Amino acid sequence: MPEVSIEEVARAAGVSSATVSRALRGRGGISPATTERVRQVAEQLGYAASPLASALASGRAGSVAVVLPYLDRWYFASVLNAAEQVLREAGLDVLLFHVGDTGLRHDYFSFGMLRKRVDGVLLLNLTLSEKETDALRGLGVPVCMVGYEVDGFHSVHIDDAAGASTAVQHLLNLGHERIGIISGDPSEPMACTAPQDRRTGYRRTLEDAGIAPDPGLEVYGDFTVEGGERATSELFGRPKPPTAIFAESDEMAFGTLKILGRIGMSVPTDISVVGFDNHQMAAYFDLTTIAQPVFEQGRMIARRLVDSIERPGEIPPEKIRTDTSLIIRGSTAVPSEYRRQFPA
To answer: Domains in the chain, please, with CATH?
Structure first.
C-alpha cells in the first residue's frame, strides 16, 4: 500500500495541511469537531504522522528532556507521572534522563544533553552548579525546575524548612523534648535541597524552644523504607532513644513503623512518629505527616513548560511556592511519661 500523505488527509477532511498537523499533534487552536473529523479521516486512510516531518514543519523537536536523580522513589515517580500527562496532552514526547550517580550526571551535562535536540528541559530536585546552569542556559530553550530555584528558570517548590518546623512544633506541643530525626545524608552526591532544608527546620525549631539539638538523635536514611528501617534500628541501639521521631519522608516513616512494631514499641503509646509528603499509603498506616501537593507541582510546572514552548518569549520566568500542611492522624500523642504523671 502506498504511504498516505498529510495533503491527502487534508483534502479528505476539507482542511489545510497545517490544521491536520495541529489536530494530530494536539497543539490546540482548533475546534473539537474539526479535530475529531481530522482524526477520523486519518484513521480511515491509515495515515501515520511522521515525527521528523512534524518537527521540520513546526521548527520544533516535539520533545522535552526530563532530568531526575531517582527513578525508584515515590516522590519523583509521582511528579514525573503528573508532568508526563500534561506534556503528552500537549503532543510532546518525554526523553527521560536518569542521572543517578556523579558520573552519569557529569556525562549528561557535559555531553549527553547537547546531543539531544529538545524544546525544553524539566529538572526534578537537582541542585545545580554554576557550570550546569550555564549549560542549560546555553540550550536556548525553556527550563523548568521542581524543588529548586535558579534565576531565569521557571520553578515550583515548597518551603521544606517550614514544613519540617511544623512537624517538630506539633511534637513539641504534645510535650515531646527528645525528638529524633531521620534525614537524608548530607554527603549524598545528588545534592538535593530537601534533606538539608528539612534538617535545618528541625534544628531551628528545637533551638527556638530552648532545646539544644542532640547529635545522638540524628540519623541518616536514604528516603526509602529500607533506609527508615536501618535508621530506626540505629536510634534504638543508642543509650537514650527518643520519645518521638520526625522522618523526612513518609517512606522512611513506614520503615520506622515496621521496626518499632518488631521491637515491641507501640505507636503512639510508647513513641510518636511524623512523616513528610502525605504519601498515598500514609492514611493506611494512620501516619501523621506534612502534606505537600506532589501531583499538583508536577502538573503545574509541566503546564509552565508547555506554555513557554508554545509562546516563546511571552512568559516571564516565575518562582512558585506551594503550601504544606500538617495532617494529624493516629501516630502522634503526648509522651507516655506525661500520661503517667497526669493521668486522665
So the answer is: 6-58 (1.10.260.40), 63-158+294-313 (3.40.50.2300), 160-291+326-341 (3.40.50.2300)
* The model's pTM: 0.80
Q: What is the spatial distance between Cα 132 and Cα 35, in angstroms, rounded to a whole number?
A: 41
Q: Concatenated DSSP letters for 83-144?
A: HHHHHHHTT-EEEEEE--SHHHHHHIIIIIHHHS--S-EEEES-PPPHHHHHHHHTT-S-EE
> For residue 160, which of 200, 206, 198, 205 has the smallest C-alpha distance?
198
Question: Distance (Å, rounded) from C-alpha 143 to C-alpha 123?
Answer: 8
**DSSP string computed for 287-317:** -EEEE--HHHHHHHHHHHHHHHHHSTTTS--
Question: Strand order of the sheet with strand 93-98?
Answer: 93-98, 63-68, 121-124, 143-146, 154-157, 319-321
Contact of 148 with 193, CB cutoff 8 Å: yes
CA-atom Rg of the chain in angstroms = 25
Q: How much is the pLDDT for 61?
A: 72
In contact, 29 and 22? CB cutoff 8 Å: yes
Amino acid occupying residue 122: L
Residue with cell 515548597: 158
Q: What is the per-residue pLDDT across 150-202, written as a single tens digit (0 to 9) for each? A: 999 999 999 999 999 999 999 999 999 999 999 987 666 555 778 889 999 99
